[in-house]
Design goal:
Four copies of one chain form a homotetramer. Chain A is α+β, with helices and mostly antiparallel strands. Chain A has helices spanning 5-16, 27-30, 54-65, 75-84, 104-110, 137-148, 157-182, 200-203, 221-231, 238-254, 256-267, 274-284, 291-294, 298-307; strands at 19-21, 37-39, 43-51, 95-103, 117-120, 212-220, 270-272.
């Protein structure tokens, strides 16, 4: 299932094809269209199709705001303005379609973003390939350390290595069992003609959540930015963040002006509460404020201080 | 507002431009891209952008059903199969964007289809043009006759003509008043420099529902077919149906195989109730069934008989 | 159409009824259930039904976060935490249903919030009542002043009064014409038995956007807060803001803890861009920053300064 | 995780509580509120909350259709009419919230219904219990036979039993390994104080898709019927169908009139294509039609014949 043969044929036809269109294009994205960017040990992200570019956003905004937007002399300013003021509908006018290969447990998080269209490989009808995710030793240790929140030592390199060997052995064993239950290999050939296999829809339930699936995923630019704001973020699990990070690069290629505004107003910006804002005003007047006076909880105070480099 | 000058410039740039793309195209739709198809007295529908074609549906289905779909030897069969069995997600993989000019009262019906993206001209910020919808005498008479459901005579040609004159006079009057309230014309020039105009957001509230607005409307193919099934239908109001009829032609250009399946399985198909199905089975065995025996109400029985040409 | 007789009967049955339920309730909202809160000159907002309360949010969060949330010792803290960190799904577990009477032009803005359910009165099938919105002289003047953005004097009281008289006269005229076109009154009685009226679906198109319609509107708590954040805001048009303001009070009655968090983290909080945040850090270190150095545009700098009371 | 202790407390408080409300209730659903209906070997479905009943649908329809609906003399007729003619918005006015325990592979299918709200137990933060799904021997054999589509013999009882033993052994093994990787039990107690465990978010990826999760799932009545039409259907996988079947009973308790209409017009009704309808008309006139003449494919012809009991 890395990519099926049928897909490969179709995609290589597409990759070599360059045709004329009267549609507007995104030169940056055209360069990498269909290209599979590797993620994790067996996954990938590739852009399969798209509609619109920065111009499409400007155009849509001008339908809405009519002649009034003539004043906004240039596209960059308008796009920044729209994002700053959460006028999100013009961004919905662009659409992108990805082909993604990812472990089940990542797909389960991914799919929680409901305002998108999905076609996932169905293990009810087809046989999954022997591809499973095994974390690298560094990430195994790092994630464990973060999750313990400093309550313990990190895993030693030796301990990490041992666990990884075990994970690999287990996944191999599960796949062997899967084939035996099906009594067919992933080409659909019977393994033991004397025996009956069980239904594919049941056999798949014995595989673990680190096995890979793949899907087509289509989303508009506004909702994509929402996805990226949540998933290309240190709070997201490492295994979904690496996908989001690559998609952030693809965003930059597709709609460079929007990307710039996204970084400025969403990704690297910050939100303050009513108490945070009041505290800021006082501090800026040169008056010190304590956590108690601020009305914030200890945790909020800490987050506030970190955001503003107030801790030393 | 027929199309603003800014839009005209942008669009004529786009219309003459033909560029290379590695994306798959729809030759039938490329031919009419950006072309405004007139609707009613001042409205239009034009396709501004699109993503995907019949191939994209087949491709998405093959991701889902994997190797299993190899058996379905050809695309036409697969698309028919998907639509017949309501496997709708592959159709969500195609997207289309329209630019539509339409009266307010049509826009109000249109917008009830929520699974779409919209950018509408804002009369809060911009001034509406003097464009309003007046029905033709035939439609005025025809719609009124239907609505009376045979309870009265049709409007006479003379009566229709008289009403139409009155509608036109009234709309002209409302627009003149609108300009006076704004104290500016639609180029933003002050009319009477001695006076103050009222806010655009308030002045617009005095215009009637037959004035024209315009919008960009983007929707996926699955939801477009749902829209067309409801609106390109005799039960829909004439003034929205004429838009849907043109979009049905555009559907045929864009995705000819899907169009064919849509006509076959949705538009010209029929749904029967449990009682209807039971009655059909009995009738096909050669046994007559009365309305009372069928379990259907009189109205259902009539609908049932009409669908099957059983009335004479 | 203030409220139809059928509705009145049904609602008065409901209002007097108190029945037992095993569902959890919101005592604050029960007190005002079905009560119509007047808005503008003929509009209202009333809560017709609801599901869930602050407890429901806590419960849903605990399903998600499992035993881990035991540590969050109390509900208030958990709700604040969820809203601060944009964990929005637990708020989707509460639902509310409103009955709203509002002018067409307000309904047109309202309906742009797509993640909600709507049943609107249909003037295709029924006759609209003679109810239209006329701004008060103060709001007429105030909105016009704001929209002119200081480019002119306010309307004088005399000018406002004159305009209002004219608006009223015009609306009366339009309704009289509507009845004449229909050739029936709003009880469905024929006015002139010698003549034919035109279809309701066409007659309605002659009424202006300040006439009233009504709808049932159902939305989950997360999306309601999004609506209120945009519409109970000084940038929103006055005529929709007054509805949102009342709904904000209803929010407080329904889910008091969530209301508190909403005010703290959304409504009265503020978002800063990457440049804004960088500027804040520098200022807090005691180093002055100019607009040019900040990387912000003049307009952003002004917004930044106003948010932080930095202007004098 | 069958139900956490915190949940048990909360739910038992709720179950014994009966309070007054001015909201309309559904007596049939109140009787079983909070009750867990067992599904599969460890799963359940329970209704946690709801809003509205058959009356709410009628009320909403009357807002839409105004005085016109007075003619529809009774609620039953109106609800049947609405469903027959796909006037779906009034059904969106009712909402229901379920608490569901189900295997991962069922949850993955479930979640594809996007127009719903979900809070799922997070194994990123909490530890999963030792609960996994093992099919019964009959279903293992039955599902496998269907999937082979007559291409082989069924599994023998002995073969089924053997496979089931193996599945159970494997799941036990995976859970033991999960605990060892975590180095804690599901109360959060450390197992081996000398060792470090790995992060919960990684350990969970080693469990197989037959392990149980749980979620709160909230949906409106229209979308629930769509879910049930697809999932309480012979084409759905057995393991999701058993959930849907129970929810169908809950639908009957909640909105008995809607349930009746749903069975009549959706569940037990049938849809015919354009060719099917044409063939029906010819057959009803007494003229025989062959598959070739019908324009249907062999497979369509077979489906057509089966629906109408035309095969012998």
């Amino acid at each position: 299932m890395p990519i099926t043969d049928t897909q490969k044929e179709e995609l290589s036809d597409l990759e070599t094809q360059v045709g004329p269109t009267r549609r507007d294009s995104s030169p940056g994205l055209e360069e990498v269209l269909y290209k599979a960017f590797p993620v994790l040990d067996h996954g990938f992200v590739r852009v399969i199709d798209y509609m619109g570019n920065d111009n499409a956003i400007v155009q849509a905004a001008r339908v809405s705001y009519g002649k009034g937007t003539k004043k906004v002399s240039e596209d960059r300013g308008l796009i920044h303005y729209l994002l700053r003021h959460s006028h999100t509908t013009p961004f919905e006018m662009c659409e992108i379609k990805f082909h993604i290969k990812l472990p089940f447990f990542v797909a389960r998080q991914w799919i929680r973003h409901r305002t998108a269209n999905v076609n996932e490989y169905s293990a009810r009808y087809s046989i999954l390939d022997k591809e499973y995710y095994i974390p690298s030793p560094e990430h195994l240790a790092a994630q464990s350390a973060i999750n313990k929140q400093g309550r313990g030592d990190s895993l030693s390199p030796a301990a990490s290595q041992e666990i990884i060997e075990q994970l690999r052995k287990e996944s191999e064993h599960l796949y062997a069992q899967y084939e035996k239950l099906l009594n067919e290999d992933n080409q659909g050939n019977s393994l033991d003609s004397e025996k009956e296999g069980i239904a594919r829809e049941l056999a798949r339930t014995t595989l673990s959540l680190n096995f890979y699936t793949q899907m087509y995923w289509k989303i508009d630019l506004h909702n994509l930015m929402h996805f990226l704001a949540l998933r290309a973020d240190p709070h997201a699990q490492y295994e979904i963040r690496v996908y989001a990070d690559i998609m952030l690069d693809l965003l930059k290629r597709w709609v460079p002006l929007t990307y710039e505004a996204f970084i400025q107003y969403r990704k690297e910006g910050a939100r303050f509460s009513q108490n945070g804002l009041k505290t800021l005003k006082t501090l800026l007047k040169g008056t010190p404020v304590t956590q108690e006076e601020s009305g914030m909880t200890k945790r909020e105070w800490q987050e506030f201080s970190e955001m503003l480099d107030l801790t030393r």
